[in-house]
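Reviewer comment 2.1 asked that we show a complete input and output for one of the modelled complexes. We chose the adenosine-5'-diphosphate case, as it is the one discussed in the main text.
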Amino acid sequence: MEKIITAAGKNYEILRLLGHGKGGYSYLAKCEGREVVLKQIHHEPCAYYTFGNKIESERNDYQRLKNAGIRIPEMLALDTENERIVKEYIAGDTVFDIVRDRGNADPYLPEVREMAARARAAGLNIDYFPTNFVVRDGLIWYVDYECNGYMDEWNFENWGIKYWSRTPVLPSLRSISGITINCLLRFLCHDASVGAHVREGRRLPCGKVSCKAS
Ligand SMILES: Nc1ncnc2c1ncn2[C@@H]1O[C@H](COP(=O)(O)OP(=O)(O)O)[C@@H](O)[C@H]1O
Ligand SMILES: [Mg+2]
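Response of the prediction step:
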């Protein structure tokens, strides 16, 4: 069954869900023969974050990242009323997929470090969690527009790098919950609040870790 969603006066055919985080649901969609990403902002509560106006944040963060010279997909349309954003689709594996399949994303460390240096020079941190990076033709793209004021604690070397290879976090979670690593990986992929837990040094609530989340 075909599903059509309208954003800023244009109709988009929804092809599939790409991912879902604390900000919204990102779908692969088609409009006028072109594949794009349509992100629908959601208002699901997240105990570890306080949100302001999400659509305004996306707009401002996009501009800050552009000015900082971070490689991000083009913003193609913004529908404030319906809280939808249309962006260029970057086809490829996420860094998360690469870590899962190969154990690490070492070949991309020089690139992410260059990105991190640009972000820092502009006084910013980006969300270094690996679901937010897609590799296309050997280049990494930061596909989430979120950015925050720079703090040492959440920079790439102190925080993000832990998730750019299989870390002890994953096996220890498996033993806590007793679920398969696959379910956990899918869970991590679809629930960015896990990233927030880790970021804030909290223990993960094992009750939340279930195959249903995938
Ligand atoms: N432009 C894009 N190209 C390819 N994949 C994308 C793109 N935008 C988002 N995605 C996928 O959708 C997921 C969720 O999108 P994201 O904008 O990061 O949402 P959130 O703000 O909720 O974290 C991403 O982790 C990524 O896997
Ligand atoms: Mg994200």
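The pocket of magnesium ion (ligand 2) is lined by residues 21, 131-132, 144, 192 (CB under 6 Å). We note this here for comparison with the apo prediction described in Section 3.2.
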